[in-house]
Amino acid sequence: MSITELVPLPDLSRARRVLCFQPHPDDAEIGVGATLCVLSKRGAQVILVTVTDGGMGTFDASLEPTEVAMIREREQRKSAAVLGIEEVVNLGAPDGGQISEPVVREEVITLIRKYRPDFVMAPDPWLPYEAHPDHRTVGLAVAAGVLFSPYPHISSGGEPHQVQGVAFYLTAHPNTFMDVSEGWRAKFEALAAHRSQFDEATLSLLEHYLTARARAWTKEGFLTEALKVLSPIHLHVNVDAVNL
Ligand SMILES: [Zn+2]
User: Fold this and answer.
1) What is the β-pairing status of strands 87-93 and 119-123?
2) Residue 1 C-alpha to ligand 1 middle, in angstroms?
3) Which of 23, 27, 145, 168 could in theory staple to 108 by disulfide, Cβ–Cβ 3.0 to 4.6 A?
4) What does the pLDDT look like over 174-203, one tens digit per residue?
5) Where do the structural domains in the chain lie, given as residue ranges?
């Protein structure tokens, strides 16, 4: 017997309110931008939380990190508008491997209790070979935050709230393949708003690669952003989680 016969995987396509966390401006667009666009077109409320200010995201030593952060905040607002995201939250933590999991986890719990989403999203912290510590830290903080947010004695911020599911993007173990073709053009329009990060050549390369990758996940070949969706109960003492 599989654990999903006892506790089925939650259905992301029915989400009404999604709280999506990203370590830096542009991560969500790369991993889950078309899905966010499709969900918001279908009437879901999407709130995008950017954990760090992205201030390290430049190769230009003459640019101050505070300037980079300001540019990236503007780009993120533009991009979110393209995707139909209703609200953008910036936690403004320092970029470049300086955030700690317990501190981010507190913020995650507070935001889950404030917005009371049915789904939460984050980069998969268990992506093999992910070298960027901010991605691993945010993913872990969100996974723990999803687990802890219903417990009244854990964390002081807000009324306890249980989400239905967590959807990890940029995952190597996907189990959910929504057809997000109708959001595909918007995904790359949104990515183009991040001018400080992507020139025309990089954008074109990204579009080529991500589109081919998106079609390769399923036999049918529709455009998808493969996700690992789990319910909170799947996230603890579960030896089968990797295969669900
Ligand atoms: Zn990132």
Assistant:
1) unpaired
2) 38
3) 145
4) 999 999 999 999 999 999 999 999 999 999
5) 3-234
